[in-house]
Specification:
With about 300 residues, the protein is an alpha+beta fold. The protein has 8 helices and 15 strands. It has one domain: 4-Layer Sandwich (Glutamine Phosphoribosylpyrophosphate, subunit 1, domain 1), CATH 3.60.20. The strands form 3 sheets. A 7-stranded antiparallel β-sheet has the order 5-2-6-1-12-11-13. Helix 6 crosses helix 7. The chain binds glutamine (GLN).
């Protein structure tokens, strides 16, 4: 198992969120409390993603070359001026390391300098047979999305190869690492990029995986910088929602009485001041793909 956490709220220090509380995500790397048979410690690396509003993000220049600003740094600047940012979704960035989180000085010395209204982080305990490398560490990102998976998919190569065919046949060679989580992300992100409601996308992917691999453990976590979606399938999850913030975490990082445990087999959708918890249905609520009243009210 791994442990993961997502935060939405007032600007917070990215590094501080990793070390916040008496039972911080960093502490959970060596002393987790709710492992549920998924390992002992989470020492196979970590990662954290954060979002910036488009105006603060480094704009793309030309064919994907990053423009770094400053006089004379761009040969076209004199004639065209710097590239203009346009309004759009928040832009996600990330930092990952395959070493135990407690060994990385960036957590105390660099990451606290970054601030964001949205953060998604994970610490990893590699499933047996899977590589320990930076590319295997969540969060996995694509477009505006970030993703983490706490769990494991037995027979993941056969299962996910078969499921990919059900979801537009994305090339599984695009997986960053040869792990169940990285490969699952290649499939899930197809649905997200197609504009499928993220809750519906999670339901469909979870159902498809469980149909072929019924013992799969699927605590999934997706964020887009404004909303967080999560599933529970076997592993622990808690939420803390207040008027101005929302936190989703495998384990509460402190003793705040507002933490609320989430039962197994649920879909969670949170924003500051908003919380939806619904059973993980195999199919969308009706054949037309319409959402429930709760979901409609949220969107
Ligand atoms: N199976 C995933 C991996 O190996 C997640 C592991 C976990 O949740 N412990 O990266």
């Amino acid at each position: 198992m791994c442990r993961h956490l997502a935060y939405l709220g007032p600007p917070a220090s990215v590094g501080e969120l990793l070390t916040r509380g008496t039972h911080s995500l960093r502490s959970q790397s060596w002393a987790p409390r709710e492992m549920r048979g998924g390992g002992t410690i989470n020492a196979d690396g970590f990662g954290v993603a954060w979002w910036a509003p488009p105006a603060e993000a480094t704009p793309e220049h030309g064919s994907g070359v990053r423009w770094h600003g400053g006089m004379g740094s761009d040969p076209d600047e004199a004639e065209t001026g710097p590239p203009q940012t346009t309004a759009g979704p928040p832009v996600v960035s990330r930092y990952r390391n395959a070493s135990p989180i407690w060994t990385d000085p960036a957590v105390d010395e660099v990451l606290p300098q970054l601030h964001s209204t949205a953060v998604l982080a994970a610490i990893r305990s590699a499933t047996v047979g899977m590589p320990v490398e930076r590319a295997a560490c969540a969060p996995f990102t694509h477009g505006r999305w970030a993703f983490s998976h706490n769990g494991a998919i037995p027979d993941w190569r056969e299962t996910l190869t078969a499921i990919a065919a059900q979801f537009g046949s994305p090339s599984l060679l695009e997986a960053e690492s040869l792990t169940d989580s990285a490969t699952l992300w290649v499939i899930l992100r197809v649905l997200l990029e197609d504009g499928t409601d993220p809750g519906t996308a999670l339901r469909r992917v979870v159902a498809a995986v469980l149909e072929r691999s019924p013992k799969a453990r699927l605590n999934l976590l997706v964020g887009d910088g404004e909303t967080v979606w999560a599933t529970t399938r076997h592993h622990s999850l808690s939420v803390l929602v207040a008027d101005d913030l929302a936190v989703v975490a495998s384990e509460p990082y402190d003793d705040d009485p507002r933490w609320r445990p989430i039962a197994d087999r649920q879909l969670v959708v949170v924003r500051p001041g908003r919380l939806i918890v619904e059973p993980l249905a195999v199919e969308p609520p009706d054949a037309s793909g319409n959402f429930s009243e709760n979901e409609r009210a949220f969107s």
